[in-house]
Amino acid sequence: MPGDGRLTPAAVDVSEPAGTARAAGDTAAADTSAPAGRPAAWRAGLREHWLAAALIALGVILRVMAQFAYRPALFYIDSVKYLYNAEGNDPEGYKAPLRAILAVSNLNTVIALQHLLGLAMAVVIYRLLLRRGVGRWLAALAIAPLLLDAYQLQMEQTIMPGTLFEALIVAGLAILLWREKITWRAVIAAGLVIGTSATVAQVGEALILPAACYLLVCGGGWRRALGKAAVMIVACAVPILAYCTGSYLVTGDFFLSHSGVTSFYGRTAAAVDCATIKLTPIERGICPDAADQARGNNWLEFAPNAPVQAYYDHLPRAEVNTAVTGFSHAVITQQPLRVLNAYLRDVVKIYSVTRQTDTGDAPISRWQFRTSFPYFSPHATRAEVDGIVRQFGGGLPRVWQPVADFLRSYQLDGGYTPGPLLLLFTFTGLFGSAAALLRRRLDHATAQLALASLLFFVSAAGLLLVSDLFVYSWRYQIPALVTLVPGGVLGIAVAARLIRNWRTEHSGAGLAGPAVGGTELAAEG
User: Fold this and answer.
1) In the chain, what's the furthest Cα-to-Cα distance?
2) Angle CA(81)–CA(82)–CA(85) in degrees, nearest 5?
3) I need a labelling partner for 1 at 20 to 30 A (CA). Which of 51, 384, 420, 437 fits?
4) pLDDT block averages, 10 residues each, the chain of length 525
5) Reported pTM
6) What element of type H or E holds 70?
7) What's the CA gap between 194 and 289, in Å, rounded?
């Protein structure tokens, strides 16, 4: 159409490749008007993407406020694991970049870089969705939760691996989706990134199967699809095996963490009926009474005075791990419905209208901004935090009171992604994923949207469902912002295209119908 800014066929010189012509034109333009044209191009880009630009600007403002409200950083009970030694309780993939930064700078720099990662993830997701054919408004909707959710901000402000883990998720999925044709090089690169995510947070292992399934669904011939899926799994395994090998050489244990061996204990101990289950004597000793069960799976798993901790204090860890594993296996096999019922109750909590702590869950207050500098026992007490900042730099802990008050009010009064919106994205992501499985009936553009929706949605499902298997924590739901939300938005885009195509077909049929009928009547006459 004239004036719509698109090249018509007549505007292209077919005597040479289009890329050559474009490159030559770009070079000529750069030679004559680059200094003057660049600001104009920026202004035009901002006008075209004004909603995304406004959201990013708000995200920058919120992150600057958080950076200066809580100096030099926020600390959690687990922060010391990554600053010093996790002792096998969690993978320490976050420790290497953290200590590398601290070797040349201080804690303020770590937090600034984590906030920059948050902004970079938003830009990558926005660009990726545009490349896949999502409209600018919908693509901006996909990054709004990541940019504005106060729980995301609080995580970025804390010395914890969550932000790096999210960045690796986004990088791995973006590598697979950036181009329609998935090259072997992209498969290997994405696999290495996804595998690395598991060394930062062990739940990253849950991304391997969704990525492999996506490659199978993409097709391209069954041999090629199976080959790419196999290469993906091998590439994912490389950083995991490298980490485990390093762990074995240093500690004698070949694993990402020993938590993976015993992580079901909290879930199974909270659901078990000790009066009817059959257990060995040592397993019977870690079966909690009703009063302990009422405290919930988080307490049973982690509390220093939980029944299982007494065994760790007096028996070899390997022996207790064996007992805990046997106990969990007995509960799952003998009382599966009790475990399933408790698990499903936790799965749907993410869709709650409000953010609150249910009985037995980890307190959500741990991941909320406070009006004074927060300390936690154990491992993040005032004395321990003061020792950390003296060692790594950044100044003694301090709070900018007015900004801290604002951030807390913002977070508690609705500055988070509402559960009903996540429920909508679950339905639309499921729809987009289903459409991907039936993509042979779709036009090419819609099929590409559906495939992207499938990858994001099944990755979200894998991460969230696996996380909830152990204990429910609102912190473990935050990766939904970079998986479930984009997957749901892509599902909306699929539905919108299908509706538009249906209307186009039916309006065309309606217009063609009378003409055909008139011709037939004329012929009969």
Assistant:
1) 102
2) 50
3) 51
4) 37 35 40 63 89 98 98 95 83 94 97 98 98 96 98 98 98 97 96 97 96 93 94 98 92 79 84 94 92 88 84 84 92 96 95 89 93 93 95 95 98 96 98 92 94 98 94 94 98 96 78 45 33
5) 0.88
6) strand 70-71
7) 41
